[in-house]
Model the fold of this input.
Amino acid sequence: MNYVSLCKSTANGIHCLDFDESGRFLLALGGNRLTIHDVDNEVMIASTLTHATETLDVRFTSKANTLVEVGRNFVRLWFIKGSDMRFEEVDMSTMQNVSCLGTFQ
Done:
């Protein structure tokens, strides 16, 4: 995949990049556009707009075809089926004392 072309395809640059566990799919967040790329076949398979407020991070989860998007005062779970992407808002009232979400190695 031509990663330089991927980065040039977003006017506001790329804020987040993440590969799924297989390494086949790459998600990119640029501005408020979220895209999923099939690296093996060098094609974009899905694209959608993210939350209107600032998204801080987006990552694939360990569950197939699922992403988590975290932003200021919101958390969304995204579900991918083919080129279709749908989300569910996480009820923030059920979360207590969350100051950071992420992976530490």
